[in-house]
């Protein structure tokens, strides 16, 4: 039986639960602000609380893999459990791993996050295309088989990204636009939404590129990084209906109280609904 594509599942989740992605970023300062130690026990408590508070109500949860990997195998075990429990509660899990390599190594990354038999199988994963878009083929193919998604870095919010992403290709397009055009080709004909998304920072102002990729647009930078839901139409223009705004610290700082986390996430979702026209 062919699995339902990620793009269709994401569209339904955003329509029913609200267009919001909440990051799970257990870095040391957040653990401390929750009164937790920067150790496995603190990591586990933090992660369990976020999943308990939000997995049954937000469209997407986005664990940042690095903050779990820093604790070694025990941290990865916490991540595995969080992925399974979040998916069981109905949230789509986007693994923020930003993997990028070539050949069999990229294939191994794809097997890690996009193979249904993997303990880290996620609904989608972030990847880096700057070894060439073709280097992502193992991930794109694996995602298509499992009904998962791939979010490709296009225009990131960090200032250093511009030296690569805004560089000009031989045909005059920016490298970011080259990547976006590849994504549009992958999504051609998909309904209601393609499964290959782009990562475009919400803090960019006018993105200055064509974002009509027929796929989701993950927009990090809402909240602590300075962007607000009201900024989204200016950045994304006509494509704003496909935006998945992502907030991490803006919600997580309201823990460890479960009701505080839920209220903060609900508030951001309401602000996005008010700012973004219904698709």
From TrEMBL:
Report the protein name in the record.
Orotidine 5'-phosphate decarboxylase
SMART domains per UniProt: OMPdecase
User: Which top EC class is given?
Assistant: lyase
Family from the record: Belongs to the OMP decarboxylase family. Type 2 subfamily.
Q: Give this protein's Gene Ontology molecular function annotations.
A: orotidine-5'-phosphate decarboxylase activity
**Which superkingdom heads the taxonomic lineage of this protein's source?**
Bacteria
Q: Any keyword RNA-binding?
A: no
Matching Pfam families: OMPdecase
Q: In which pathway does it act?
A: Pyrimidine metabolism; UMP biosynthesis via de novo pathway; UMP from orotate: step 2/2
Q: Which UniProt keywords apply?
A: Decarboxylase, Lyase, Pyrimidine biosynthesis
Catalyses: orotidine 5'-phosphate + H(+) = UMP + CO2
Record domain Orotidine 5'-phosphate decarboxylase: where: 19-264
């Amino acid at each position: 039986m062919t699995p339902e594509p990620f793009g269709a599942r994401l569209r339904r989740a955003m329509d029913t639960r609200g267009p919001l992605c909440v990051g799970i970023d257990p870095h040391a300062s957040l653990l401390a602000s929750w009164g937790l130690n920067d150790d496995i026990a603190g990591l586990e408590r933090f992660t369990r609380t976020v999943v308990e508070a939000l997995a049954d109500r937000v469209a997407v949860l986005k664990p940042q893999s690095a903050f779990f990997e820093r604790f070694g195998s025990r941290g990865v075990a916490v991540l595995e459990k969080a992925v399974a429990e979040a998916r069981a509660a109905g949230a789509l899990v986007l693994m923020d791993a930003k993997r990028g390599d070539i050949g069999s190594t990229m294939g191994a990354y794809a097997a890690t996050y996009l193979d249904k038999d993997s303990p880290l199988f996620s609904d989608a994963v972030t990847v880096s295309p700057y070894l060439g878009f073709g280097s992502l083929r193992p991930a794109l193919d694996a995602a298509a088989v499992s009904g998962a998604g791939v979010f490709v870095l296009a225009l990131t919010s960090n200032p250093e990204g511009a030296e690569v992403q805004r560089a000009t290709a031989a045909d005059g397009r920016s490298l970011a636009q080259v990547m976006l055009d590849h994504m549009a080709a992958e999504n051609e004909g998909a309904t209601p939404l393609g499964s290959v998304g782009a990562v475009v920072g919400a803090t960019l102002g006018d993105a200055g590129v064509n974002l009509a990729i027929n796929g989701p647009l993950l927009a990090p930078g809402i909240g602590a990084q300075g962007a607000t839901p009201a900024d989204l139409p200016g950045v994304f223009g006509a494509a704003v209906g496909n935006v998945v705004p992502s907030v991490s610290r803006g919600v997580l700082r309201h823990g460890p109280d479960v009701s505080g986390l839920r209220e903060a996430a609900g508030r951001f979702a309401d602000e996005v609904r008010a700012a973004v026209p219904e698709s």
